[in-house]
Amino acid sequence: xxxxxxxxxxxxxxxxxxxxPPTTLPDPAAxxxxxxxxxxxxxxxxxxxxxxxxxxVVQVHAAGKRNAAGDPLxxxxxxxxxxxxxxxxxxxxxxxxDEGVLDLDRxxxxxxxxxxxxxxxxxxxxxxxxxxxxxxxxRLTARMLLSHRSGFANFAFLEPDGKLRLHFDPGxxxxxxxxxxxxxxxVLERGLGLKVGAEMQRRVFDRxxxxxxxxxxxxxxxxxxxxxWTQDGTSEPHDERSRVRAAGSMDTTITDIARFxxxxxxxxxxxxxxxxxxxxxxxxxxxxSQFPTLQDELAxxxxxxxxxxxxxVVVFQGPQGRGFYKGGHDDAxxxxxxxxxxxxxxxxxxxxxxxxxxxxxxxxxxxxxxTGAPWSWEYGGKTFVE
Length: 386
Prior knowledge:
Blueprint: H1 3-12, H2 28-42, E1 46-53, E2 56-64, E3 79-80, H3 84-98, H4 142-146, H5 178-191, H6 196-205, E4 228-229, E5 235-236, E6 251-252, H7 254-266, H8 272-278, E7 283-284, E8 307-309, E9 314-318, E10 321-330, E11 333-340, E12 345-351, H9 360-368, H10 375-379
Helix pairs in contact: 2-9, 3-6, 3-8
């Protein structure tokens, strides 16, 4: 059996006899106390957490401050979703796949009226003309883009010369790339004539009753809005995003994102096949950590067999069986969403202070028990608190 085929077996099998029995969920008062303890240890100013069990939201918590003025963070405070946006975008895309509007494996150029490099550079998208002399872009598919196998850097503006380029043949390895998600957004908007913001609103946010979630800034958010704190404790104002970005423009609340996580566990709005595809092991992950995104691959003997790219998420095999997760991060925000298939359980954490990330492994373990979520891979050399 080939190594990747073996990994697929490991990730998709249901090793019930070997799995650790699911833990009993702690009561809300215990979760509040653990959140307070973790905030004290990390100096995080604000933290929100939700628990999903059997595909239903069973607990929602918020603690600390939402801004430097000391206003309280509540369960309906609007917080920056960051890269959790990618998971919600993938969920919307799979609805289009279910409907036959999009084929995951059809080259994206077939949806466009002209070659991708012939489209002029626009502020909202990457500089597609930079690919004019590299025909490999024609191999790109929606599946590759959603599973971070495009070959792009995370974003073109991070390249030393600011130019978009393919660093490897599309589809041949994992390397996290927000630019890949932006390209798929471009295909939906320019090729299929869809408005991604409107599709996200109708197919995801409205479906799950996410009344305070949007891909664009809304003035009604201002009354209960979270600013953020950086690693050195500096407060940063919330960015009022004016452009829909599939890679990370979503604002949400802990109540709303919990409803999404629960709906995702139930597979609501997707066919059984479409829901399974999201958390299927699409491709092995072969690097020591997620960032830097274009680091060298590990030697085969050093690679983790329990870790693979899904569509918009990372999938893993842990002591409770199969699971998936998605993180979200910027200089003043840290978020995570971890789910295990058994009992359809999740923990979602939104931190309006990036220092909260150091508590994520302990918080998730406190609620769900040991899941096997790949914290060291996600955060590299970060030091965690217990």
